[in-house]
Amino acid sequence: MTISRRKFLKTTSVSCLALAAGPSLGHGYELLELPGRMSKGPEELKAKRWGMVVDMRKCDGRCTEDCIGVCHEIHNVPFIPEAEHQVMWLFQEPYENAFPDRSRELVSKVLKNRRFLLLCNHCDDPPCVRACPTQATFKREKDGIVMMDYHRCIGCRFCMAACPYGSRSFNFRDPRPYVRKINPAFPTRRRGVVEKCNFCQERLEVGKMPACVETCKKGALVFGDLDDPDSEIRRILAESPHVRRKPELGTRPSVFYLF
Amino acid sequence: MYGKRWVIPGMILFVALAAFPFYWYAVGKDKPFPQLEMPKNAKACVEKTPFMRANHMRLLDAWRIAVVRDNLFVYTAASGKTFEMNLHKTCLGCHTSTEKFCDRCHTYNDVTPPCWECHLQTETASKGSAS
Amino acid sequence: MIEKAFHGGKGYWIWIIFLAAGTGMGLLAYLYQLKEGLWLTGMSRNVSWGFYISQFTFLVGVAASVLMVVLPLYLHDFKAFSPITVLSQFLTVGTLAMSLLFIFSDVGMPMRILNVPLNPTPGSMLFYDTVFLPGFLLLNLIIGWTALGAEKRRAVLPPWVKILIYISFPWAVIMHTVTAFIYAGTPGRGFWMTAIMAPRFLTTAFAAGCAILIVLSMVLGRLSSFDAGEKAIQKLTTIMFYALIIDAFFLAVEYFTAFYSHVPAYSETFRYLLFGIDGNTAFVPWFWLMNIAILCAIGLLAFPGVRHNHLHLSIACIVALCGLWIDKGFLLVPAAFIPNVFGRIMEYPPSWVELTVSLGIYCLGMLMITTLYKVTTAIKRETNVRR
Ligand code: SF4
Ligand code: SF4
Q1: Residue A30: is its pLDDT beyond 50?
Q2: A226 CB under 6 A from ligand 1?
Q3: Are residues A9 and A83 in the same domain?
């Protein structure tokens, strides 16, 4: 049999590609039949759509170091010295930066001097989830939490461009050396992935309220089920006027502010 | 064939070079299987040892997906015992030293999974913060 | 055919070595970035996409412009384009390879890049790009290579290649449209969130692509016996001219909406680009330069004397390219993050690591294009001699 060099090269290169592509596509994603079965935790706090109220009438911004500190400590959030690479789950901004779309003229003193507590809004229609090309960011249908899978994130930062609230932080540096006190019960992150507030999913599954809610002595943070008309959070929202950040974008944030 | 004089020795040389690891490591003896330090507070792992030895990474992967995406939390093993699907509490709760368990076997098999880039065992964590 | 790339004069080899050296430098810078992390770039939590993603955007546009050559040739039977068809297809191959490398350099976890095809996410626009880009690269490589082979053997194009060519028409448009959709579908970034983004992407793409092709044809004409033909050059010039005018019109429309409506979400970034805000003016000179370059190019090309003098035409093309590159290859991506989501002005300067990696990728792309063009011109010379 004679084949031309051209044909030989073509056939070998195509078959090499196929050989290389085959196993790499299946790698690690084959479904494993586990001998056991999985179920929900017995103490898990349940809700259809978790949400939070930040009552700025009660939060005077003086002790926010406490709730932010606890959050960042238990979640091993690094403290990066350069502001432009900072990682933040729970953070503060003045009124005009937290609500840049609202009136900045003749702002009342009460609002002007406030530092607003900000976190991921766990939007009902989250643009970050829409953007993510790997489903590393996703919304859980069962409880509405917008979660991240740090094992899957490729660090493309499309979600950061898509989130209009600045809730997401990219690990520009290796975060480990910047974690002040490591909590061994929670992982740190790797360099090159995005991270954000997870509404304390790891606490909810064992029956605990989010750490910031538990820490706040003034009762300024209320956490509950937005889908349950009898929940405390729904009662508060029914009674007091409230706002959400950038509602005009249609993301339907699950974090509400009272002031 | 075109250029036979060069192509055939070239091919032989290529095969010889590409197969280098096979015959290089074939000489010499098997290294002894590493001594693993077994947990003191438990007799059996989540599933049977052969299964765990072959599939622990896939089990952990399945656990992670179940916990993070499907709000699941408890694993009932074939034996009927239940475990929290949590690497830190369940796995590292028994295997307190990753160095004396995980790493020994991983080193023996020459694999370097990136687990410890994020996950911490209590011992290294306390060491880390002390320094 | 590829062996033709190994026969060249002294100048050719010096150019190859120069490009290889540039590629090597870029590779070193990339390895440094891989080791240290993306903090070495100028990007930040405020401006989270920068130079890499800009280059990707610009180059996908150049790649899509192949449409402006194959469409007249195969749909309208405009024969004058046949000498430059393979050139434009190989230009597409090179630019797409560069775009893919730019995405690769931008992600924080490059070793996990296969997670994109492994978890297909039809809702994400970035997912479509990772499908359409390599597809178009292959498509053009196969079409171009087969066409060249057919030319060498003086045979007609096999019918299956014709089918691939027809597939490539909508493919080019879709590919660049989904690139625009990455930006146009992003709530909260008013500068991007405009329906004119995709049309504008296509016009700037066609203008830039034609400009590059004209310049390349002139350079090849100087260096080899290659002749694009005056008719082809003039047609390319016309396409570029109208694409530039449409682009200028689209820009003007954008300015009107932003500045007449006074809606801050739309106008703030434009205000920053035109005048600067609170003393932050890093992008202002660039933005003015962009506008002036595009207007100048249009003005120059309006004169028949410029269009028909090859030196003047090349200058006009380069002026146009400067404007188009500053627009899409530099400002469009980072400017949307200014002001940031908190209404603060945080500026973005690319770092030297970013620039070196980018230079390396451009060198690698040019290396690919050079070798492919070497083969093309060598084969064209052979067939001409035989003829
Ligand atoms: S606040 Fe941002 S990160 Fe959080 S769910 Fe909404 S869009 Fe996503
Ligand atoms: S950075 Fe990670 S989470 Fe964000 S879009 Fe990319 S893959 Fe998804």
Answers
A1: no
A2: no
A3: no
Pocket test for ligand 1, best of A54, A125, A196, A255 (most atoms within 8 A of CB): A196
Is the Cβ–Cβ distance between A147 and A50 less than 8 Å? no
Q: Is residue A201 part of a domain?
A: yes
Triad A41, A42, A47: Cα angle to 5°: 75
Q: Please indicate, yes or no, if residue A45 is contained in any of the structural domains.
A: no
Are C265 and C187 in contact, with CB atoms under 8 Å apart? no
Number of domains forming the structure of chain C: 1
For ligand 2, atom 7: residue with the closest CA: A153
Q: How far apart are CA C9 and CA C1, in angstroms?
A: 18
Distance C54 CA to ligand 2 centre (A): 18
What Cα–Cα distance (Å) separates residue C91 from each residue in B92, C66, C144, C161? 55, 8, 10, 18
Task: For residue C174, give the CATH number of its domain.
Answer: 1.20.1630.10
Task: Identify the residue among B56, B85, B117, B124 best suited for mutation to test binding to A, counting A beta carbons within 10 A and taking the highest.
Answer: B117
> Ligand 1: distance of its center to the CA of A196 in Å?
9
> Which burial class, exposed, middle or buried, applies to A17 when counting CB atoms under 10 A from its CB (0-12, 13-18, 19+)?
exposed
State how far the Cα of B130 lies from the Cα of C38, in Å rounded to an integer. 29
Where does the pLDDT of residue A2 fall: very low under 50, low under 70, confident under 90, or very high at 90 and above?
low
Instruction: Report d(CA C16, CA C18) in Å as an integer.
Output: 5
Q: What is the mean pLDDT of residues C174-192?
A: 94
**Which one of A182, A196, A199, A206 would you mutate to disrupt binding with B, by most B Cβ within 10 Å of its Cβ?**
A182
Nearest 10 degrees: CA dihedral of C357, C360, C361, C364? -160
Span C211-266, pLDDT tens digits = 999 999 999 988 888 888 899 999 999 999 999 999 999 999 999 999 999 998 89
- Pairing verdict, β A50-55 and A255-258: parallel
ipTM of model: 0.91
Residues A198, A75, single domain; the answer is yes
- Ligand 2 binding pocket (C-beta < 6 A) is A 131-132, 134, 136-137, 148, 153-159, 194
On whether both A111 and A233 belong to a single domain, the answer is yes
Domain that residue C6 falls in: 2-386
The ligand that comes nearest to the alpha carbon of residue A136 is 2
For residue A44, is it within any domain? Answer: no
Identify the pLDDT of residue B129: 41
Interval between CA A156 and ligand 2 midpoint (Å): 5
Structure tokens at A244: 């959400």
Residues A215 and A101 in one domain: yes
Q: How far is the CA of A162 from the centre of ligand 1 (A)?
A: 8
- What SS3 class is residue A221? strand
Residue C49 has pLDDT above 80, yes or no: yes
Residue B27 has pLDDT above 90, yes or no: no
- The Cα-based distances of B9 to A60, B1, B6, B15, B20 in angstroms read 82, 13, 6, 10, 17
What residue type is C169 in one-letter code? F
User: What does the pLDDT read at residue B130?
Assistant: 36
Q: Are residues A22 and A57 in the same domain?
A: no
CB proximity A168 to B under 8 Å: no
Tens of pLDDT, residues A177-204: 999 999 999 999 999 999 999 999 999 9
Specify the number of domains making up chain A. Answer: 2
Answer with the residue of higher pLDDT: B4 or C165.
C165
Atom of ligand 1 nearest to the CA of A162: 7
Give 3-state DSSP helix, strand, coil % of chain A, rounded to 5. Answer: 30, 15, 55
Q: What is the pTM of this model?
A: 0.91
Of B62, B73, B88, which is closest to A34 when you measure between CB atoms? B62
Q: Note down the domain range covering A182.
A: 50-258
Per-residue pLDDT reduced to its tens digit, C275-307:
999 999 999 999 999 999 999 999 999 999 999
Cis amide linkage into residue C339, ω under 30° from 0: yes
Range C99-111 average pLDDT: 96
